[in-house]
Structure formats: C-alpha cells, structure tokens
Write a structure and sequence with these properties.
Blueprint lengths: L6 H6 L9 E3 L8 H9 L4 E8 H5 L3 H6 L9 E6 L3 H12 L4 E8 L4 H5 L10 H14 L3 E9 L7 H10 L4 E8 L10 H10 L4 E5 L5 H11 L3 E4 L19 H18 L1 H16 L6 H13 L3 H19 L1
Parallel strand pairs: 1-2, 1-8, 2-3, 3-4, 4-5, 5-6, 6-7, 7-8
Helix pairs in contact: 2-11, 5-7, 7-8, 11-12, 11-14, 12-13, 13-14
Bound molecules: flavin mononucleotide (FMN).
Length: 331
C-alpha cells in the first residue's frame, strides 16, 4: 500500500527538524543571495550558490566574484565551482578558503548545459574520472573546509558510472556526494532514478550521500530518505517562487505571501541596485504567482503588470497595490 505522508506525520516523525536534512540546490540564475536569504527566512540551513567559474574566480573576474558575495540577511553557504582545470580549481578554492561565509566547496560534475560541456566542465568530468579525481585532490589541497561533488548517473545511458565517480572522489578526499540520478543527456526529461541513490548509499560508505531529483513536496523528502537511506535531500525546482515548500505550506494568497515577495524584491534591490534587480525579479515574481491559490481577478492583472514592468519602483508599487487589496479584503 502506498504510504501517505501527511503534514502531521512529518511533524510527528522522529526527525525533529526536517529542515536540517534539506539542501537548497545550486541553481544558475536563481539561487543568488536574495533568493537564499528568502529560503533562509523560511528555515533552510544548507544553501548552495549558483555555479561559479573556477577559472573566472581564480582570475578575479568581476562576474564570478559577485556570485560569492552575500547580503547580511544571507549566511554561511556552499559555493559551487565549475570548470575543467585542476589548477584553476586549486586557486579558486584557495580564495574560498579565506572566506568565513563559505562553509563548503562543491564541485560541479553534473551540469549538462552545452556551453559548460564544450569547455570540458560539468558532466564532462564524468567522462574523465581521473581528471575528476585530480580536481577533487586540488580542492582538498587548497582547503580544510568540507568538499562535495555533485554528479549525475552518468553522461548517457551507455555510460552509467556514478559509482566510479563517487569512489574516485571519495579516494581523493571528498566528504560528500550529491547525486541527481538522471544522465546528462536526459537533461531534465524522464524520471530521476532514485534507485541509483540507494545503490550509491549502499556501495560508498563513510561519506555523506545526498539525493536529488523530482522532490516536489516535503513528504517527498521523507519518501526519498526512506526509499534510499540517503543522508539528506537536495531540492531545486520545487523552490522556484515557493519558499513555503520549506514550511510545508501551500502558496496561499495572503498578507504573508505579498510581504514575502516584497521582501525578495527589496533584497534584490539592495544586492544588485534597481536596474539589475528589476530584470532579475521579473522571473521570480512570475514564479511566485504561478501555482499560488489566488483569485484570477488579482492574478491575471498582477502577471500582466509584472511582465510589462520597466523598473524596480514599478514592481514595488504593483506589489504594494496588491497588498492593499489583500488588506482591504481582510477588513
Ligand atoms: C534553472 C536551473 C539551474 C540550475 N543550475 C545548476 C547549477 O548551477 N549547478 C548544478 O549543479 N545544478 C544546477 N541545476 C540542477 C539542480 O541543482 C538540480 O540538480 C536539478 O534541478 C534536479 O533537482 P530538482 O528535481 O529538485 O529540481 C539547475 C537546474 C535548473 C532547473
């Protein structure tokens, strides 16, 4: 019989704090400091940066340096590096080693995006396990902080080698493996093969194994842990415009909902300045209203106004007008 993990079941479970077991995934274009600060305000404790170029950071490139900076509302984080050159990883890890707000360095060996693969990074590292091992070694040489590696099941269906990648990473000193059990070729199609997480947990012992992929609700977190015995669960897409995931609430259109998105906008303005913030916030604001239980008489105009917005000031007044309507309804 299918188990039904209800809210009360999660609360009553022996896991006192399920939030301790959840990691907020590295998400290029999404998991920046304002996004992390919002997730943190909902209780998330283990949060990953967007992927940062090891080459770029080692050369002090402005865009890469920006990605490792944080707001005071944000806090200790894991920085994910991508690239293909062990020397660049060493230099980038040396820089990260000096930073108090960086608690762990993660190596991206799973990104399936063409541009990253072409330069030999991301999931390309799974095709050259010796190189992957060298990169882990160099990062370990540069830091005493925890080092983790994020992998997929393999590059394609014919090369499922997550066990080899995890083994070589462990031998090189990695403290944790995160597995998104799809191949790089699959990108996000099909289904994540949780069975691979279970096998990895059985075969590679002595380091933490974190499962990732297709976790849509808080009860899926527990389900993945039960089915695979993994040590923690990383969540990505389910958090887009939805920090309520972390408190097991559905997105209900109320004062707290509107105040949360306003706070996200203000944090983005603080971090990026008005001009950059409004461009980035468009997609977040659209994610927020997607799937929110909200009357269509408010949702449709909000969506349209945000899509057309041309400044952070305009976005702020759209959100404030919406807030006024919520408060008026509550009176
Ligand atoms: C928009 C987007 C950006 C992503 N960026 C990264 C990244 O920078 N580094 C990385 O390792 N994975 C990245 N991923 C993959 C996620 O971290 C995660 O492995 C994947 O979304 C599966 O988890 P989910 O089913 O919970 O979303 C990205 C995924 C998406 C959808």
């Amino acid at each position: 019989m299918q188990k039904n993990y209800t809210k009360s079941w999660i609360i009553n479970t022996r896991m006192n704090n399920i939030l301790d077991l959840i990691s907020v995934a590295p998400l290029a274009g999404i998991s920046d400091s304002p996004f992390r600060a919002i997730c943190r305000s909902f209780g998330a404790k283990d949060l990953y940066s967007e992927m940062v170029s090891a080459d770029g950071l080692s050369r002090g490139q402005k865009g890469s340096v920006r990605l490792i900076q944080t707001l005071e509302e944000d806090g200790p984080m894991v920085v994910q590096l991508f690239g293909s050159k062990p020397d660049s990883f060493y230099l980038a890890a040396k820089i990260l080693d000096e930073l108090e707000h960086v608690k762990e360095i993660n190596i991206n060996a799973g990104c399936p995006v063409k541009k990253v693969l072409k330069a030999g990074g991301g999931a390309s590292l799974m095709k050259d396990v010796l190189l992957l091992g060298k990169i882990v070694e160099q990062v370990k040489r540069a830091t005493n902080k925890s080092v983790s590696v994020k992998i997929r099941s393999g590059f394609d269906f014919h090369s499922i080698n997550y066990l080899d990648c995890a083994r070589i990473s462990k031998e090189a000193g990695a403290n944790k493996i995160i597995l998104h059990p799809r191949t790089a070729k699959m990108m996000f199609s099909g289904k994540a093969e949780w069975e691979h997480i279970s096998i990895l947990k059985q075969m590679i012992t002595g380091i933490k194994i974190i499962g990732n992929g297709d976790v849509l609700t808080l009860s899926d977190v527990k389900k993945m842990m039960d089915e695979t015995s993994c040590d923690g669960v990383m969540v990505g897409r389910a958090l887009f415009g939805n920090p309520w995931f972390l408190s097991d609430q559905s997105k209900v259109f109320n004062q707290q909902f509107v105040e949360t998105i306003l706070k996200h906008l203000e944090l983005a303005i603080k971090f990026y300045g008005d001009h950059h913030a409004y461009r980035l916030m468009k997609k977040h604001l659209i994610y927020y209203v997607k799937g929110a239980k909200m009357p269509s008489s408010l949702k449709v105009p909000f969506y349209d106004a945000i899509t057309r917005s041309n400044s952070a000031e305009e976005q702020r007044s759209i959100i404030n007008d919406t807030l006024k309507e919520v408060l008026a309804k509550n009176e």
